[in-house]
Amino acid sequence: MLPTAELHIHIEGTLEPEMLVRLAARNGVKLPTTDIDELRARYRFTDLQAFLDLYYANLPVLRTEQDFYDLTSAYLARAATAGVRRAEIFFDPQAHLRNGVPLEAVFAGLSGALDDADDISADLILCFLRDLGAEAAEETFRAALPFRDRFIGVGLDSAEVGNPPGIFQDVYRMAAAEGLHRVAHAGEEGGPDYVWEALDVLGVERVDHGIRAMEDVELVARLRDDRVALTVCPLSNVALRVVDKLADHVLPAMLDEGLLVCVNSDDPAYFGGYVDDNFAALRGKLGLDEQQLATLAWNSFDACFASAEQKARWQ
Ligand code: ADE
Ligand code: ZN
């Protein structure tokens, strides 16, 4: 198995049905069903919004520091078996705040699990829910500042179309002033204009997804020339019908263009697999050869936010 870094993983998207049922029972949260097969059968989507509706509906089972610790520990253990040596993990504080969970519990559980993982290097990236708007993002950022040492960057996720990156210029400026890394989801369902805005208005260092950048030759040249990494999530794109089938995916074309692309699982509990499953699908269904797969793994370390010395040890 190829050692890799995973740079696009939502911790809330690792909530497997078994964990959902266990946490619901522990916290007295009522679920529509506790049958694992029935729950898993619901993990089928027509688009990003259909997925987000279920993703948010499941989150009230996460209530305590222990819940966040258990969720994160389970991901880290599974990721280690997938060859992940470095993980940069997204989390959605606004989703938990609106469920009445204090930030203290979220940070303590997540960072406690990271501290206890000795076979994987991991850090947190705080994401803003773009559909809640810029003011809510700024308020969340200010509330998170007392925990500044617990996260290394900010990101932007949730419903993309209609919520362009440029709206978040001020909060990204605040994050930059704090010395935080900046990434954003763009070009998943939104067009190339969203990727341009993420680059030019937010100053992002990496683009999450970014597959629709391939529709714009000037943008492809910009991404290549500036060596901006794109965290591509093949099984996610099929599950959310961003592409019809894996064989149609633009990932081989992105590699041919010399883009700094890497492979990630996004929300593995919902999309049919972890990063090793994504690599297996690229090998089996998309026909990528060993050289291409090795390039993807190498790129993931290149694109990660670990120190240069640490990267050199992985590569
Ligand atoms: N939140 C969790 N997964 C997401 C995705 N793939 N796109 C946008 N927001 C998300
Ligand atoms: Zn994502």
Structure summary:
By secondary structure, the protein is an alpha/beta fold. It is 48% helix and 15% strand. Helix 7 (133-144) packs parallel to helix 8.
What can you see in these coordinates?
Pfam families: A_deaminase (PF00962). There is one protein chain. This protein has 315 residues and is an alpha/beta fold. The protein is 48% helix and 15% strand. The protein is built from 16 helices and 8 strands. The chain is globular. The structure holds adenine and zinc ion. Residues 10, 13, 48, 55, 157-158, 185, 188, 236, 266-267 line the site of adenine. Residues 8, 10, 157, 185, 208, 266 line the site of zinc ion.
Please describe the structure with a list of short key phrases separated by commas or semicolons.
binds adenine; 16 helices; single chain; 315 residues; globular; TIM Barrel; zinc ion binding; alpha/beta
- Tally the structural domains: 1
Tally of helical runs: 16
Q: Name the CATH superfamily classification.
A: Metal-dependent hydrolases
Basic shape: globular
Bound molecules: adenine, zinc ion
Q: How many strand segments? A: 8
Radius of gyration: 18 Å
Determine the strand fraction and express it as a percent band: 5-15%
The CATH architecture would be: Alpha-Beta Barrel
Separation of termini?
14 Å
Order of helices and strands: EHHHHEHHEHEHEHEHEHHEHHHH
For the largest beta-sheet, the strand count, sense and barrel status come to: 8 strands, parallel
Q: Work out the oligomeric state of the chains in this entry.
A: single chain
**Helical content class:** 40-55%
Question: Which stretches of 5+ consecutive residues score pLDDT under 50?
Answer: none
CATH class: Alpha Beta
What is the CATH third-level topology name?
TIM Barrel
Determine the structural class based on helices, strands and strand pairing. Answer: alpha/beta
- Quick check: average pLDDT? 98
Strand numbers in spatial order across the main sheet: 1-2-3-4-5-6-7-8
